[in-house]
Design brief:
Layout: H1 6-21, H2 64-83, H3 90-105
Length: 114
């Protein structure tokens, strides 16, 4: 019995010839792509910084002012909260615990007794 059957070899050859002559593209999604109706998405470059010509005044959009004050305000609030947060590190706890134990044994003097 031969290692490769003739019918299988013929079918494989035909499949290779057909696959090389026709190019097919497969999508990564099972759902078909819907056509958009929002117009072109590409905005060609104008050559001006932020699209504002020299001599023209920039007009702010409605979301820019609340975003600026909200973002800066939240950064300031976070900095203040970080400055006043309690120290919960293990090193601080161990230092205080060692000081308490040494004071209880009488090895270290109590700093409040003066």
């Amino acid at each position: 019995m031969p290692a490769v059957r003739p019918n299988t070899a013929v079918r494989a050859t035909r499949a290779l010839q057909q696959s090389t002559t026709t190019t097919s593209t497969r999508s990564f999604s099972a759902t078909p792509r819907a056509a958009s109706s929002h117009g072109p998405q590409y905005d060609p470059p104008t050559g001006w910084l932020f699209g504002v010509k020299p001599g023209e005044k920039y007009q702010k959009e409605g979301w820019e002012t609340p975003f600026f004050y909200g973002f800066c305000g939240s950064l300031i609030l976070a900095a203040v909260a970080y400055g006043f947060k309690p120290d919960t590190s293990i090193q601080t706890w161990a230092l205080e615990e060692a000081r308490r134990r040494l004071e209880a044994e009488g090895i270290l003097e109590d700093p409040e007794k003066k």
